[in-house]
Write a structure and sequence with these properties.
11 helices; 11 strands; homooctamer; four-stranded mixed sheet
Amino acid sequence: MDEQRLKDLLARVQAGTAPIDQAVAELRQLPFADLGFAMVDHHRAIRQGVPEVILGQGKTGAQIVAIAKELARTGQNVLVTRIEPEKATELVEAMPDVRHNAAARTCTLEKAPIPRLGDAKVALVSAGTSDLPVAEECAETMRMLGIEHERVFDVGVAGIHRLLHRRPLLEDAGVVIVIAGMEGALASVVGGLVDVPVIAVPTSVGYGASFNGLAATLGMLTSCASGITVCNIDNGFGAAFAAGRILRARKKAAK
Amino acid sequence: MDEQRLKDLLARVQAGTAPIDQAVAELRQLPFADLGFAMVDHHRAIRQGVPEVILGQGKTGAQIVAIAKELARTGQNVLVTRIEPEKATELVEAMPDVRHNAAARTCTLEKAPIPRLGDAKVALVSAGTSDLPVAEECAETMRMLGIEHERVFDVGVAGIHRLLHRRPLLEDAGVVIVIAGMEGALASVVGGLVDVPVIAVPTSVGYGASFNGLAATLGMLTSCASGITVCNIDNGFGAAFAAGRILRARKKAAK
Amino acid sequence: MDEQRLKDLLARVQAGTAPIDQAVAELRQLPFADLGFAMVDHHRAIRQGVPEVILGQGKTGAQIVAIAKELARTGQNVLVTRIEPEKATELVEAMPDVRHNAAARTCTLEKAPIPRLGDAKVALVSAGTSDLPVAEECAETMRMLGIEHERVFDVGVAGIHRLLHRRPLLEDAGVVIVIAGMEGALASVVGGLVDVPVIAVPTSVGYGASFNGLAATLGMLTSCASGITVCNIDNGFGAAFAAGRILRARKKAAK
Amino acid sequence: MDEQRLKDLLARVQAGTAPIDQAVAELRQLPFADLGFAMVDHHRAIRQGVPEVILGQGKTGAQIVAIAKELARTGQNVLVTRIEPEKATELVEAMPDVRHNAAARTCTLEKAPIPRLGDAKVALVSAGTSDLPVAEECAETMRMLGIEHERVFDVGVAGIHRLLHRRPLLEDAGVVIVIAGMEGALASVVGGLVDVPVIAVPTSVGYGASFNGLAATLGMLTSCASGITVCNIDNGFGAAFAAGRILRARKKAAK
Amino acid sequence: MDEQRLKDLLARVQAGTAPIDQAVAELRQLPFADLGFAMVDHHRAIRQGVPEVILGQGKTGAQIVAIAKELARTGQNVLVTRIEPEKATELVEAMPDVRHNAAARTCTLEKAPIPRLGDAKVALVSAGTSDLPVAEECAETMRMLGIEHERVFDVGVAGIHRLLHRRPLLEDAGVVIVIAGMEGALASVVGGLVDVPVIAVPTSVGYGASFNGLAATLGMLTSCASGITVCNIDNGFGAAFAAGRILRARKKAAK
Amino acid sequence: MDEQRLKDLLARVQAGTAPIDQAVAELRQLPFADLGFAMVDHHRAIRQGVPEVILGQGKTGAQIVAIAKELARTGQNVLVTRIEPEKATELVEAMPDVRHNAAARTCTLEKAPIPRLGDAKVALVSAGTSDLPVAEECAETMRMLGIEHERVFDVGVAGIHRLLHRRPLLEDAGVVIVIAGMEGALASVVGGLVDVPVIAVPTSVGYGASFNGLAATLGMLTSCASGITVCNIDNGFGAAFAAGRILRARKKAAK
Amino acid sequence: MDEQRLKDLLARVQAGTAPIDQAVAELRQLPFADLGFAMVDHHRAIRQGVPEVILGQGKTGAQIVAIAKELARTGQNVLVTRIEPEKATELVEAMPDVRHNAAARTCTLEKAPIPRLGDAKVALVSAGTSDLPVAEECAETMRMLGIEHERVFDVGVAGIHRLLHRRPLLEDAGVVIVIAGMEGALASVVGGLVDVPVIAVPTSVGYGASFNGLAATLGMLTSCASGITVCNIDNGFGAAFAAGRILRARKKAAK
Amino acid sequence: MDEQRLKDLLARVQAGTAPIDQAVAELRQLPFADLGFAMVDHHRAIRQGVPEVILGQGKTGAQIVAIAKELARTGQNVLVTRIEPEKATELVEAMPDVRHNAAARTCTLEKAPIPRLGDAKVALVSAGTSDLPVAEECAETMRMLGIEHERVFDVGVAGIHRLLHRRPLLEDAGVVIVIAGMEGALASVVGGLVDVPVIAVPTSVGYGASFNGLAATLGMLTSCASGITVCNIDNGFGAAFAAGRILRARKKAAK
């Protein structure tokens, strides 16, 4: 159910051709296609301007397939995140149009064209090769949200000149996403270099005292660079989504 | 030293009236007014478009006065955060133009008019009365950054209807800042209601298992609402600054 | 040994047909059927009104089988929780009447009919599909305790309207059990909506800063909604049992 | 605004003497008496059957006075928890009818008679003398909620016979609240002795590895006694409120 | 090298038949049979009265075999703890006299008869069937140390009468070892019942908020029963060893 | 009520001069002198052989005085631990025979002579001067328990020769208590030097990563020296009490 | 590109044969051989005097091979750390000159001779056999850095005489590296024995309260021996690298 | 007692003028001047080449005075760290030659001239003004150890150009000490810029998620720059001492 259909319904209410009770009933039933284990929320596309996202982790393959099919049935684009390889295989077999990106641990389905979200670019900065899966998830999510982005990879702070070399690109970005594990210092350095929005994603890369990303998370939250905001550990999806919020508000304002 | 002065210097270099060595020397010395204990960074105004901010915590009153005076000498606006009452008194006595906001724990000095940062408003949402000091710090920082904002206070999730009542205001905002302690659930609910950027600030409000804001921080980082980003505990300043990054990039893009 | 047998014994004492020493001896030996590694407590059915529950985790398949057989021998109903698939298979092979619920990770055996525990219903609310195993364990335990319940699944706070839609059902419940992972905010919202008893179960669903359920646990303990009580992480069994305590006391009082 | 006034308003709607728009407006404005820093929620009394509770911690004396006065103005009973002595003095001076209980850290105001909440008693069990402030807060909250209760103090598990001595009282209670610090083992022992609802409150009593109540909290959450539920550390108020939820539902069902 | 051999050497020194330099050299080389990766310490038997113990965890099978052979070569008894099944198999194949106890995760070799360590018994109390591996490790260590012990299993505090039933045995013991997971409350209850030495061993049994034994550890350290001492999580070996220290000192004193 | 009085009562039962009902009643009432806020347990002296100990922390001065007076009334010796100076003054003023030891934070009252507990000595070893308050509490407790002890102070592992110098004394002790903060390594070194019982007390001495004694606690629990047992942080009382358990059992056995 | 090539380039600039723009371009392109997923930094050899190190953990086998080949192509020595066996096999198959050290979890490639780094020796001290993998990684790194070292293995503090026996060797070392798990006390003892630089490496050896090396880390950070510095858990590589920094600065100074 | 006195004693032994027994006795008594609560260790000056350091924290003023006097009596230099102002006043009053540095929280006494420790300089780098107390403690310790140093203050990573500006100074240093709070990223950036030894000191500067220095500690331990070593939180003394170890070994080697 897309926005147009909602507006049509409300117009019928205004025109008197749909009694209020009936409109209420129609509204109430439509958005919830009850699958027994998950209410697929067709309203969210209206509320947030993006398709339903399925968190693969913790769901069985059969559950993922059922939800994805229900979404596809209504013509929506689908993004599955944190999906294990076997479940991805199960999904692709059930829905051959689905595309699996193993590095990103995502599956995507494009039922409708994805319009570009504004004209700004996002700079996607990551500290090391081991951070790639998170960066890939982030990039794949941005692709599904229509966000153009450029990658700046392997610019850890231990070799600060590599990063300084890329400063112009960072300054021109609409948003900078910084993905870093270990001590996560990259976010502070980038935050000090540019004055655009900086979204920091701590990763679980590292060992010992990194405590699965805790070190990077605490470091980014207490960054000495002002106005950096932080996502959950390894949450490349969330960072892309947050960038989407910024660009969407900007696009709406530009109208 | 403002941006114009930098451009003038570079123009002289281009025109040949300033040899490169001399220009380098001028640049290198200008930004660092060495006070013995702190390099006041006049460059930052150029790099980030905002005046120097002084973190009051951990500095002596004498140090704060010295830094503030050095900044004022060059005509910059000053914001001191997390300043204890006695140090604020000491500062106001030394610099009578300084304004102390006790609730916000800030001192401010406006040497220059503050231009409005874009035309979007920020919605400043807080869960309870006990969160007010953090909200005030946030509001005071926004005032110094030229960000217009509207307050939506005391809308904790335990009385969800209060929040729903204010939804239109939230949806029209350019950025929503959510300040909440205890379990911090307000950020998730707001994040699900609107599709604009949401910046969450956990507070140390609560006791026992809130562990000085840890509960709210973990809760906001793991929010089930997508694309929420998080600041440090009690960091109202940081949230305002992050909103400033978003609005500034938007303003720059709008030109 | 059920309550009747206990009363019969005491009546014989009163009537003088059983000397005190003999009664003491009978009492002392009866409840402890010593299996070498576990004292199966037939008294508990008397003390708590429910059959013995076997925590499958940490026991070998052989141990589970032995305990279950001992219980069945005395005519009691059996509930095994947190049982791995292989051990469940081992148990079902040894005791073909046992029913394995893989989603709930439980095995059950009904030797006696299960009387309904009072006339109130429990509303079993869960935030997402990934919380289903915990919800299933909870439902299966309620079934064994004779508690009628209704499921309200997939109503996470990021889509608050889904939950509001189900408010009447929640208000009519005798107890509401809320099962949620990530930040666990659902408990706060439900707690604010209804004034019936709310039992919150944090789950280990989530990743990164959820720290295996710690985020949800701290969030639920520090909930801004008053009078919510909390169970251990993933402890669907415990929530059902706590609901049973409430309903049993209510039933006893209604007599 | 009490329930009767709400029903009257709805009756007028039904009778046609109040147009829907006007009724909506009346409803919307009534519950929110905007004090600038806190929306006093007169609706809560309708929704949850209890008066507004003011968490004293983190509020200034002036804020507490203002909220309490607004509540008193509408004839409601008031309970202030976790209030420091000076603020209590400030409140009592401003509102001489207010009663300060220093041991409980509460202030109360009875504008209306408090009806007894059902006919069951709550057993309030605490482990040691140092737990008294939390027990007092719990008792004072129960008094304001109309809950009859009996105290069983100083029955720590290190002297188990003291507790066993009181078992009949515990078994007859409608709810047992167990308040204990250090390792919090009392909750497990009580939970094993009785089959009524058991609400456990960990306290910050102890030192060293008690980590301000963390030890007791983890202990109670992982109790080997089934169906115990847990409140926040030192949250005597919350336990009383949870007992109130149980007794209210029971009373409602008994009608 | 046993104590006799040491005394013989020193006697030769006293008698003048061994020059000091030579004696020093003999002493220095004897105790260290350098295997390249581990100095097997034959002195320890002298210093502590017990044979060398090999912590299996973290060592390769080949390393365990080499150390065990070196020890056996000098006629010492050997105890290997925390050994995985495959490595145990490897050891038994290399040294057929070695006895593997799978439940205890130990391997033992008796080259010399084990004298009984004093005439007191140790009571080995455990809370649940899942604690058995730790209890077995403890029992196996006691066997190797010559400590007589009696088992009191499955006496969790949720069924306190089972424990009270066994009180005479506990009071007669020279030492009571209490092994419990989850909240570990058993240690407090036992500590309150008896006045003999109580050694508490927290186990990793439990899930969720037990955090792999942290809950039980904190609980035992902060026990309200006075004079309980605590071992590392799952350290059945350590508890037996500590009991051995007590009994050995007692035996020595009795001479 | 001492052991003799108990035996007398039972003799009267046996002799038939005291009916069972009356004996039960006498037993039940005697041990509990209900003060309103604390059940003073006269039974404990029978059960554990030591007088009642009052944990001063968390009690008001008035409560401490009341409990101490009740104990003194029955002729028992009293030990108050962790008592603040002002409360100690209050106690001494109310009961002039009470002796305050400021360094140990204890108050003691000797109503009856303290018999020596066995003939073994305890070696009380501490790492640094800052650990003295804990060591003093331990020493004062041992004095009240009749335990003879010798102090070995300021022998931190950073100067290992100081400790080696005192080895003979340690080897001759019946129990060694090791009190150390920071990393707590002293316990491991002592545990490796001697084969008598070693009780380790972590202290909160240190700063930064000592996290108020957590570092020492974890270090002592995971000590590479076998059979060391650990008390709560700063719990000098507990260590003395544990030593008392060892010596009492030994004395009882020696009879 | 080695230091000589850099100096040649700058000489050409000075001589005027290389215009500044061209020099800048040459410099900027040379160090970054962009592989798509990792910027191999040939500059580092110039900046830090050591070859590129590849952290194997978190990289795919293909990524490791690609980076290693790129490095080898420019004639540099390569060290891969924390590489799993299968990836090591993949690397060795792709580059047969690579040498795999399974115990150390490293792969190395010597394209150029390794000059000895100064004339001091490093003493590599480890507490137990289980620490060997970390010690091996450390030793292998030292070999690649040209650092001569001597091993002192299996000298845990529970048998302090073993360590004292090796004191002369420690005192003669240029640097002492101490590798220890469990409570990590060895670092304190060594730090007290010698006055040369001591680098402590906590390991994850241990179980229970060692919390994967946290106990040892906190213990080493709070060591009572002055001037000990600490590396990440299990970071044998880092300790070797830190020793390299010390020896390199010393060698440079000696020139 | 200095090294010369030791050598003189041994020479007398060699010459036969001091019997071995007498020499042993002299040695054993000399180093330990037993003050009752602290063994002042005159041997340490011999073992570690530095005077005794008194940790002021946790000692009474009287204890500090007594230890300092005993040290002064033997002609040693004294450094007291972490001393509160009142205790410092007490010390200065008792020993007027003592110099109190309030910013550094140290007291020092120079009884003997302090020889320069080698010819290298230490660069003392700190991130912000709030880190000054730790930096001062470090500087004061270096002064007492004879270490020449240069300060590079207020060069946080959020303004990376300030740091790059000082790179030559860092590269010429014999050791770089980096003192930083919040996220502690400065250590990583410095570690990537230079190849000399880098000692990182996390500080407790910051709030919220800095958790009193935990964030910086974890960040520095997991730094992506290789070979950085870390001291305890706020331990400026320890960093200076560690630098002293490096410079002393270097000086010894240069002879």
